[in-house]
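Lecture notes, unit on protein representations.

Consider one protein chain, 435 amino acids long.
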Amino acid sequence: MEQYNDTSQVQTKQYGRLFGLSALGIFIFFIPVSFNGKTSIPLDHLVSLLKSWVGAGTSWYALAMIVAGAVYPLVTKSWRNSMTDTVFLGLKWLGVIAAVLAVTGVGPAALQAPDMLPFLFNKLVISVGLIVPIGSVFLAFLVSYGLLEAIGILVQKLMQPIWRTPGRSAIDAVASFVGSYSIGLLITNRVFTAGHYSAREAAIIATGFSTVSATFMVIVAKTLGLMDIWNVYFWATLVITFIVTAITVRIPPLSTMDNHATHREPDCEPGNRIKTALETGLAVAEKAPSLTKNIIENLRDGLIMTISILPSIMSVGLIGLLVAKYTPVFDWLGMAFYPVTYLWGIEDGAALARASASGLAEMFLPALLMADADIIARFAAGVVCVSSVLFFSASIPCILATRIPLSVAKLVVIWFVRTFLSLFLAIPTAIFLVG
């Protein structure tokens, strides 16, 4: 009887973790609630409350995180790892200078224009600095207790025919979307170096699934004024991102990469998929660390990610805004996308094409540049920010730091194809859903 009770308690704990804690994570990220006259997801409400409580202190907090991010590579000596890391060390310290100018309000009038440093720092950097650590705490509920693994088993049969990757790559894909591209890339690189992914499969996952997380998508949605239709925006973006990936895997350069893997994934037994998914989810829930330990680890990772990306966002974002305002570079690049916006005949089409091109420098730039556009263009820009996946301020250097055989030239070609297809799909979707 005592053994039966022990078994029953273990099973109750497993089910509670898999369904209870995972449900809490779903609630925090995906269920809109009304609070103080505003309807949004609970995570957004928490960040807004914290921002109002701390007040002007948020600026000094963001500055401290940016300084920490510039010092961190020096402490860890990671800036010596490659030329890319060395270049980004310089960009991070440039971000420190830009942040100091933003907080103090001193410096050239061109930088202190409302659409330059103040906009970048107050609307983007502070929001990212708050939402990533807070979001990382609640990601523990969403990613640590079997939900991702169970989903991976359920969609296993979809992965190979549609995206030409093994079933286990579903975990990478979902981990990137609800966690971060850095987490997804870390998983992908480990699996690839162990021989379980081919070079082509690893490249598909890195360039097609390792996009920014749900927490970053909240920032994009807030910047573009889309939080009142958050769920529509989120799910439309997820679907478009994966459709674009399904197309890009069938054309060069991805389609021509080596597809040999040392260890191939066994198939799940027919007819047992739901049972296997449940058993897998429960097994992960059982082995997961305690909630307290999980939250601490996620918070630590979230803080490291925050200090890693804030300086780059500040410097590359400012460079991108300056290039967009004072040079024709993005006009030239945007010409390649203008036929798509012209085809659908939308208002602000030329501006959307130009903003989409700016996403190669920093994924937030299309949102920053289109913040005052009409709803169709804003929605499309928000989709492109995420669905393009690749950008020089973070994801491209992360991919280059892995052992996945992708060159800068290949990554730029893949970015162009993804951006073109994303625009082609996002505009009619926006017209249909919010127009």
